[in-house]
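User: I'm writing a tutorial on reading structure tokens. Could you give me a worked example: one chain, its sequence, then its tokens, then a sentence or two explaining what the tokens reveal?
Assistant: Sure. Here is the example chain.
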Amino acid sequence: VSAFSDFDITGVENVEGMEGMSAEQYHAALRLKLAKRQRERPERLAEGEAQVETERRNLDSKLEAERRDLEAKRQELAVHRRELAAAVRTVGIIGAGLMGSGIAMCFLRAGYRVMLIETKQAALDRGVKLVQADIAKQLKRGKLSEAAARSQAVRLSPTLAFADLARCEMVVEAVFESLAVKRQIFAQLEAICPASTLLCTNTSALDIDQIAAAAPTRPHMVMGMHFFSPANVMRLVENVRAARTAPAVVAAVTLVALRLGKTPVLVGNCPGFVGNRMLGRSEEHTSELQSLTSS
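And here are its predicted structure tokens:
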């Protein structure tokens, strides 16, 4: 083999490059080529391993940067939701019917100031009487002290002026189930309320996305907050997340519901949400069974 150590074996794998070689020369050249490759193999392996290690370190660095960014965003969200929830001092309730007055009772009991809104004085007076009757009942049953009863009464502000809602950090709309009426209300809320106001609808079945579309500059601040009747008794609240509801808003409204002593359940935006959807199917099956037994 040493006799051929200076032999040019470039292209030795090419048969044409072997022309003129004897068998001994041919086999010697192959052995030299093999030896050369064996000498180069550790270097190539080392280079490959170094490249893999560099790529691994780069990937680890990228993943760590993404993790830190995600954690920073999570902490920012946590702070934001706490700030939104903590900022709520005065809550506007639109509609002083049985549902609206019941929701007002919940917020008054939890220590919030409540602005109860109606379009007619007679309807507003009826709603205020319902709230006052609830306070008196709690006092009579010993669930409230005289001071606490006075505090609830003082924190209730009935009004016919829709513009007063500008002083609220949170608004819960609780009018009758009309999409057109609710959209009109949310268009007014967009014009009146500060950009940081939490805007909730108590609808039990209507499309939250269509309601939020009536406030085009802030659909991220709109979500459903469906109290079950009677609101001052039933603990379940369906918090309905619309397509564009901000995560911080969902979290803030959930914290508010917990402070009311409620059991909030986050649901998606669909016909009937969860509770009424189940109830509707149950009623359908009951009707089917009744028709079968009567036939």
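What the tokens reveal: The radius of gyration is 36 Å. The chain is about 55% helix and 15% strand.
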